[in-house]
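Form 7-S
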Amino acid sequence: MEKEKFTSKSYNANVSIVENQLTSFDITNATETSFRVYKDGLAGIHYQQGKMSDEEGFAKAEKNLELKRPYPFEIETGKRSRDKTEKPLSDEEIMDTAKKILKYLRKKHPDYTYSGRVTTHIWEETAENSKGMNYKAKDAYSNAGIEFKHKDSKDISDGYIDFSQRTFKLRHFYKIADNILDNFTKQVPMPEECIIIDKYYGYTGKLRESLTLENLKTGTSLLTGKIGQQIFSKDLTVTHDVSDKTTWMNSFWDGEGVVCKGDKVTFIKEGKVIRGFCDKAKAKKYKVKTTGNAGGSYVDIPSGNFCTMTLKPGKKSAKEMLNGKLAIIPIQSSGGGFKEQGEYTMPVQIGLLTDGEKILGRVPPFTISTNMFDMFGKDFIGISKYNKEIFNDKVMIFKCQAGKL
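Output:
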């Protein structure tokens, strides 16, 4: 009988701000453990919140072999540790930072009401087993998530400033806040060509769904039958990337302890569909090699998907990629998304015009209209290198049709 233990620890501290007032400070400190035993092709699993001795945890897991969960796979081996922690704000610094942010915003931009949180998140995961596997990953960051509302607005909220750093620097937050708020109320016309600039995470849902091996093989993926074909822009490369350089609050192993070669696996390379992602069970079913994308279920055998869906950035800044054109940031958008066949529509209640570095004003409300193949194909301008002026992140730029809202 083999034994395995996956553990996740998290520490969260945050100061809440409601309508220009600091209202609360709270801390959560959680430990979760998945005790696993493997015998005769079966897995016994016990999930525990809080601390429990290994003796008791594995005894409960062994008892759960009676549930006959099938797991006919070898467990992993390997030793490695990674710590990406820099200087997250301490409890005292969180409170001090929240006070400074609120004081600065109220003085510099007094026509707004502010709510939100200033937080620190510290995270650690370990995986170890009786075959010698011993993995550990640790990371931490601090965040200011500030919602703002103009005094003349009839909406509950007008927008949100989301800013995270491993080493939190107030001057960087102030620069982004000023950029957004200085011209927020300035009305500007829609540009002739509708170009969207935004963090890409909210636009990859249908692509992720289409790249699961199960969907590709069963014909429920929009990419079924397209492996090896040039479907998207040559500027689009999609990977699962948990390398030291790129990772953000992620382990380098998946829910089964599998580590990808070089901490990276590519699904779309320069627009060409290469493969789908899967865990050991799906890999066995379809006679392929696992891509190391098993979900980290702590309560059952590994299930679901762990995939970062990383879009490779280019070498140009957002402003360079726009090349003199203007783009729109959908700072407040809701009520849309992807449809079954990949069509994408999204009402944009508040959009800000930018040259890629500076916010120029606010455009009239409009509706985005496109589809997955155009968004990442003929209308895909690219992924910029790190944008520190507005997003504090990489950004995606693409063309679309604009309709009336």
